[in-house]
């Protein structure tokens, strides 16, 4: 995962950097996109808990090149013409969370992995629960595909937008991959 976070502070959102937000329609409901002038910082679900992704200051309605690029790539993803994203990312999280989210971006389109495999991938095989918690805090779902993580037995487990949305995303990817 390539991030553009150039801040040296522990929390890059303690500056007065403007965060801009817009909402786009999708087959899984309206998605609220939040970006700074360099990168996307969040994709929020309609049902998102207010504290799942935190900002030091409220994003202002508007648009910028990053939001336009993100909206276009999400539209292509839902249309079945895009399998990966190349928008710049700037997720706010701990070093551990950043490692977990980076591992998510390496799960191939239409495939799944488990929390245990993800923990092993980042060199922390005993941190399965912590990996699950980090996935739950992923501020950029779909683009950083936490929906591709399933339980050890293959079952669909927790997802910020609900298991039905997770199932829809996985089914969509499988249908696109099948051609």
Structure at a glance:
32% of the residues lie in helices and 12% in strands. The protein has 179 residues and is of the alpha/beta class.
Rg calc: 16 Å
Oligomer: single chain
The ordered string of helix (H) and strand (E) elements is EEEEHHEHHEH
The first-level CATH class name of the largest domain: Mainly Alpha
Number of helices: 5
Given helix and strand content, the structural type is alpha/beta
Euclidean distance between termini CA atoms: 27 Å
CATH superfamily of the largest domain, called what? Answer: Winged helix-like DNA-binding domain superfamily/Winged helix DNA-binding domain
Mean pLDDT: 91
Strand content: 5-15%
Helix amount: 25-40%
* Sheet with most strands: 4 strands, mixed
CATH topology of the largest domain: Arc Repressor Mutant, subunit A
CATH architecture identity of the largest domain: Orthogonal Bundle
Question: Which consecutive residue ranges, at least 5 long each, have pLDDT under 50?
Answer: 2-10
Shape: globular
Strand order of the largest sheet: 3-2-1-4
């Amino acid at each position: 995962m390539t991030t553009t976070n150039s801040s040296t502070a522990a929390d890059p959102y303690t500056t007065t950097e403007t965060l801009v937000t817009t909402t786009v329609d999708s087959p899984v409901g309206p998605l609220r996109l939040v970006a700074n002038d360099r990168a996307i910082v969040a994709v929020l679900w309609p049902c998102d808990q207010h504290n799942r992704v935190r900002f030091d200051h409220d994003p202002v309605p508007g648009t910028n090149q990053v939001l336009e690029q993100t909206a276009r790539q999400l539209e292509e993803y839902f249309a079945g013409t895009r399998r990966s994203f190349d928008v710049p990312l700037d997720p706010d999280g701990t070093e551990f969370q950043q490692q977990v989210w980076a591992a998510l971006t390496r799960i191939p389109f239409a495939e799944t992995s488990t929390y245990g495999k993800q923990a092993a991938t980042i060199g922390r095989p005993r941190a399965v629960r912590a990996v699950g918690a980090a996935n739950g805090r992923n501020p950029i779902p779909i683009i950083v595909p936490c929906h591709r993580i399933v339980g050890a037995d293959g079952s669909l487990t927790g997802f910020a937008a609900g298991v039905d949305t997770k199932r829809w995303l996985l089914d969509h990817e499988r249908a696109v991959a099948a051609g």
